[in-house]
């Protein structure tokens, strides 16, 4: 199936997608701050430049878009209908980089928390989901687990 936008228009759309300070990140940062959790944003000295760094808990937080980071079994992680070979290659590189970053962080005894875009959407639409997810995050921070995805 052909794309309904010109290649230039599609390129402009994709280039406009931000890499940091996205709406899901802003929402999660605000919610964590309200729970008394303090963090630094986009710490470049850490592998992968995590979206948030909670030094007290030695934890890196990534807010991942389901489409870009290929959230397994998620409706938002669809394959575009045009230029599929390009997208498959891009997604494979993203997944490989994400895996390498997580491994490097764990080698440095840094815990990794990944919050998916679809989880943020649920949090935004339901106060109950928001509280449950924030409680899951707090439980993780107070546990001895090294990694979790929500």
Kindly describe this structure.
Helix content is 49%, strand content 13%. Helix 5 crosses helix 6. It is α/β, with parallel strands linked by helices and 150 residues long. It has a single domain, classed as 3-Layer(aba) Sandwich (Endonuclease, Chain A). The protein has six helices and five strands; from the N terminus they run H-H-E-E-E-H-H-E-H-H-E. The model has no long low-confidence stretch (mean pLDDT 89). The chain is globular.
Characteristics:
single chain, 150 residues, alpha/beta, Endonuclease, Chain A, five-stranded mixed sheet, 6 helices, 5 strands, 49% helix, 13% strand
Q: How many separate structural domains?
A: 1
The number of helical segments is 6
Distance between the termini: 33 Å
Radius of gyration: 17 Å
Q: Main sheet: which strands, in order across? A: 1-2-3-4-5
CATH class: Alpha Beta
| SSE succession | HHEEEHHEHHE
Low-confidence stretches: none
CATH superfamily: VSR Endonuclease
CATH fold label: Endonuclease, Chain A
Number of strands: 5
How would you state the average pLDDT, rounded?
89
CATH architecture: 3-Layer(aba) Sandwich
Largest sheet, strands/sense/barrel: 5 strands, mixed
Helix content: 40-55%
Gross geometry: globular
| Class from secondary-structure proportions | alpha/beta
